[in-house]
Amino acid sequence: MLSILLNSNTGWVLLSTMTLGIAAGTIGCMAYWKRQNLMSDALSHAALPGVVIAFLLIGEKNLLILIIGAAISALIGAFLIQWITTASRISEDSAMGMVLAIFYGFGIMLLTIANRSAGGNQSGLDGFIYGQAAAMVRTDVITMLVLALIVVFIVFIGFKEWKLYLFDGQFAKGIGLSLKGMNTLYTAVLVTTIVIGIQAVGVILMAAMLIIPAVSARYWTQSFKIMILLSAIFGGLAGAAGTLISALGSGLPTGPFIVVVGAGFFVVSLIFGKEKGILIHYLQFKLHQRNQQSNTQTLKQEG
Amino acid sequence: MATPILQVENLSASYRKNTVLHDINFEVNGGSLTGIVGPNGAGKSTLLKTILNLHPSLTGSVKFFGLPFIKAKKRIGYVPQRGSVDWDFPTDALDVVTMGLYGQIGWLRRPSRLHKERAYEALDKMGMADYANRQISQLSGGQQQRVFLARALVQDADFYFMDEPLAGVDAATERAIMTILKELKAIGKTVMVVHHDLQTVEDYFDHVLLLNRTVIKHGKTEQIFTRENIANTYGGNMRWMGEEQRHAVHSIE
């Protein structure tokens, strides 16, 4: 265990998945209140063809270039969902389902072709499906760290604006906040978070990094600020713990472990959460019931 | 009173292919309290949103204080329908009211203690001081409406637009809101309210705008709010509810 941590590469990877978890937890709260959890799933799947095309074009695995490819592909997916929803009678959830499946299928097809081409087999592109954090090298880690920190910073400095935008967009526009600008910025940070996460967590499970910390945090607080903070903490812890566990065995994928740890936080929150957690809810009800019953009894005795 | 502070010319708007509003022309003078009245689907909310640039207009122009909306928006306050936001959002009443000050606070800056105090005063004015730190999800419908109104009050605008502030609130809240609206009018502010209770129009508003996809009539309530005009707005076969009620009262007597 100690030797893993002392291995400098693992230390860096751990730091980057933790930062990724923090960024994903933060942006996950935005997606939660924009009611766009499914959207983040569609976008992460839509990123896959971009990764493979970028690899086929440059012929080597340079994370920054692959991320740019992923971002372009995810944005095309987002645009298609938007366009299908407005221009046809197909509803948004159907459009998202279609984009998710078609882009992912297309990505897998390209991946098979890339793996057959010379050198493709050793590319480690398969890692983008379930996530392979251990395959990351120092430059990958730095790219991820920098982008994740930018995302967190954007949310932090505009906290008040984000809150207004998510709570009441029309009112925000009325007092001069550009909705178009905020929508663009939101899509940009969402897509950035997704694409920097796909190497560590994989396209299939990336959405869980956004969704699970946010819904877990919802069980503990009634303040937006604290919800974001908690969500970031849950995401960071899940990222670090999942990476650590997957580093114990060789060749274990990171994504599933991160998601399972995140799911653990969720189950704990669901049961013990201060706000409407199942157990607390039940206890409060029972306590209230008993008080009410003893009140009626004393009234009867006195009467 | 001489120069109108809102001029709407030839405005039209649509949802997808359906034209909801057409040939909208009217002017509003400063210091007036106008009720926008019309049947469901008449485009009342759309009219407000189109005037305020929240919904795209097909044609026409809107001028506030002789200026386009963009230049006048600091002087305009908007109270959307209560159902337009998610009240489950994790925040408290005071925080929502503080949002009304965001424009003045400036983007990317944090609200100061002074801003919080002003928000608290506005809540107090709406009789909601005790609920300042209450979760908005735990407020009743009437209380939510008061919070929305308090948020508009802190904006300190000159011209207010309100979308059905009296829909689904109890009598006490209705009275509290109307008191505030009349106070706003008394200090020279202008207010336009989407309203759907025909019984109270004459008591509440000095001007009325009858709307059914276009302006049927607009002017002083005592001149415009006649049986004939209302029948025209609601379609000819609408029975005049006021009279029915009077009959009911008589029969009990």
TrEMBL record, chain A:
Biological process (GO), any one: transmembrane transport
- The transmembrane residues are 12-33, 63-84, 96-114, 135-159, 185-212, 224-248, 254-273
* Segment forming the signal sequence: none
- Supply the alphabetized keyword list: Cell membrane, Membrane, Transmembrane, Transmembrane helix, Transport
Xref: SUPFAM superfamilies: ABC transporter involved in vitamin B12 uptake, BtuC
Membrane topology listed for this record:
Multi-pass membrane protein
Q: Where in the cell is it found?
A: Cell membrane
Recorded hits in InterPro entries, A to Z, give: ABC_BtuC-like, ABC_TroCD
Q: Name one GO cellular component term.
A: ATP-binding cassette (ABC) transporter complex
What's this protein's family per the entry? Answer: Belongs to the ABC-3 integral membrane protein family.
Q: What is this protein called?
A: Metal ABC transporter permease
Lineage start = Bacteria, Bacillati, Bacillota, Bacilli, Bacillales
From TrEMBL, chain B:
InterPro entries in UniProt: AAA+_ATPase, ABC_transporter-like_ATP-bd, ABC_transporter-like_CS, Metal_Ion_Import_ABC, P-loop_NTPase
A single GO molecular-function term is: ATP hydrolysis activity
Name the Gene3D superfamilies for this protein.
P-loop containing nucleotide triphosphate hydrolases
Superkingdom in the source lineage? Bacteria
The answer, when asked if Transport is one of the entry's keywords, is yes
Record's Pfam families? ABC_tran
Identify the residues that the record assigns to the ABC transporter domain, covering every copy: 6-238
Task: Output the SUPFAM superfamilies linked to this UniProt entry.
Answer: P-loop containing nucleoside triphosphate hydrolases
Q: Which keywords does the record carry?
A: ATP-binding, Nucleotide-binding, Transport
The reply on keyword Transport is yes
Family to which the UniProt record says this protein belongs? Belongs to the ABC transporter superfamily.
Q: What is this protein called?
A: Metal ABC transporter ATP-binding protein
